[in-house]
Specification:
Layout lengths: L5 E4 L23 H7 L6 E3 L4 H8 L2 E4 L4 H8 L6 E6 L2 E5 L15 E5 L7 H8 L9 E9 L13 E8 L2 E6 L22 E5 L4 E4 L4 E6 L4 E8 L4 H15 L26 H14 L4 H12 L17 H8 L4 E3 L5 E4 L2 E4 L2 E2 L6 H13 L14 H8 L2 E3 L2
Parallel strand pairs: 1-3
Antiparallel strand pairs: 2-11, 4-5, 4-6, 6-7, 7-13, 8-11, 8-13, 9-10, 9-12, 14-18, 15-16, 16-17
Helix pairs in contact: 5-7
Length: 410
């Protein structure tokens, strides 16, 4: 007797604010986040069967869970300017960048194609909720959630990433082959970064609800086995020290504009006659060293605010639009007493001690203690409901609301 299956989209739950870091998680194969970080993170792959138990539980009840986002919705997103999208054909290899028209995206029953959508946490609540599951890893490391949808045979070829990634199977099946090979040379004749000599060492077929974690530099190749195969990839960025220091130095240089004492001119009344006029004078070097020591530019604490500001910047494609009907400061406070204020899905918030950085700005600098505390709550919990604020006009919190960086819960 054939079972009658009902297909319905999976509805991922929001993770609790206080994650049980020492308790076993199904998402991590029955181990705790503490143990995962110590034994696997940035060290070795982990395959998790049934990472999302809801898929297996629904199957027992003669139901089939599908991806929270349908093929039709994904095609719609791929046509939007603010969504970074790529279309890859695999026979032969060909790469196109979006936005795409509906007609330019292959039908779901065609083979050998893959559509990739970056930063989907900013565009769909289900993707944002999936990301909340991974907040046992610092927000500063998070890049985004990418959705891959493919026809049978679709993939992006054997490759490696320079970052940690969790590959969650959300619809259909995908075959994964991985290798910890040292040879990571690329084929120079292809439009994609595809490994020249891929020799897989392990192979699995992931079903909906399964997950594969891969640390950086592990070669892998994923091939769709079903039409409309969806894999959701949670990626964690790993900027170079060069990038971090350059950004920190640039912002540190900008901050010197706020120090009027540096407007003083160099003077050298003690300069002696010299027979080596071509040399940088010792007096200039001495005084510069004194200034550097005074500014403590050799201390890491001087760099960290700039680096935190950089890491809190939103993605390049992010677009913010203020509320259509702006609340007055008084109306804002009344609403904040009963309705949660949330970061816009495209907003990034990071903390450095008691300082909070939102979309590249230090939003606690020069703010009243109550506003700074509100920002700290927003940074930690990604939501704020409070009656503690008595005045909000001309504060960074209200300005962030007017700019569309913060929104009230619908």
């Amino acid at each position: 007797m054939t079972a009658f299956y009902l297909s319905k989209p999976y509805q991922p739950p929001q993770a609790p604010q206080n994650l049980p870091l020492k308790q076993p998680w199904a998402l991590l194969g029955g181990i705790s986040p503490d143990r995962f970080m110590k034994q696997y993170w940035h060290k070795k792959p982990l395959l998790v069967r049934g990472a999302i138990p809801a898929f297996a539980l629904s199957a027992k009840n003669d139901e089939v869970l599908d991806s929270p986002i349908s093929y039709e919705e994904i095609v719609h997103f791929a046509g939007q300017e603010e969504v970074e999208s790529r279309l890859i054909q695999s026979k032969p290899w060909h790469l196109d960048h979006g936005p795409f028209t509906n007609k330019s995206i292959p039908k779901i029953d065609r083979s050998d194609w893959t559509l990739l959508l970056q930063g989907m946490e900013a565009h769909h609540p289900a993707a944002a909720k999936i990301l909340s599951w991974f907040r046992f890893i610092p927000d500063a490391r998070l890049d985004d959630l990418m959705i891959s949808i493919a026809g049978i045979g679709g993939g992006v070829g054997p490759h490696f990433d320079s970052y940690d990634v969790f590959l969650i199977q959300m619809s259909g099946r995908r075959q994964w082959c991985i290798s910890e090979q040292k040879d990571l040379s690329l084929n120079p004749n292809l439009p994609l970064k595809i490994l020249k000599n891929f020799k897989h060492e392990q192979e699995w077929i992931l079903e909906p609800g399964d997950m594969l974690y891969l640390p950086p530099q592990v070669a892998h190749d994923g091939i769709a086995l079903d039409s409309g195969c969806q894999t959701w990839s949670v990626g964690f960025r790993s900027p170079s020290f060069k990038e971090l220091l350059q950004e920190g130095l640039w912002r540190l240089a900008e901050s010197l504009e706020q120090l009027p004492e540096l407007e003083n001119k160099f003077a050298d009344p003690q300069q002696l006659a010299t027979a080596n006029a071509e040399q940088l004078p010792d007096e200039l070097i001495k005084q510069l060293k004194t200034q550097l020591d005074t500014l403590q530019l050799h201390q890491i604490d001087r760099f960290l605010p700039g680096i935190a500001a950089y890491l809190s910047e939103p993605k390049q494609q992010a677009y913010f639009d203020g509320p259509k009907n702006c609340l007055s400061p008084k109306q804002f406070l009344l609403k904040l007493a009963k309705t949660a204020l949330l970061p816009n899905p495209q907003t990034r918030i990071l903390s450095l001690g008691k300082q909070v950085f939102c979309n590249g700005d230090n939003v606690t600098k020069g703010q009243p203690p109550s506003v700074a505390a509100a920002w700290s709550t927003l940074s930690a919990n990604k939501r704020l409901v409070t009656q503690q604020l008595k005045s909000i006009d001309k504060t960074s919190l209200y300005e962030a609301y007017l700019a569309g960086w913060l929104i009230f819960e619908d």
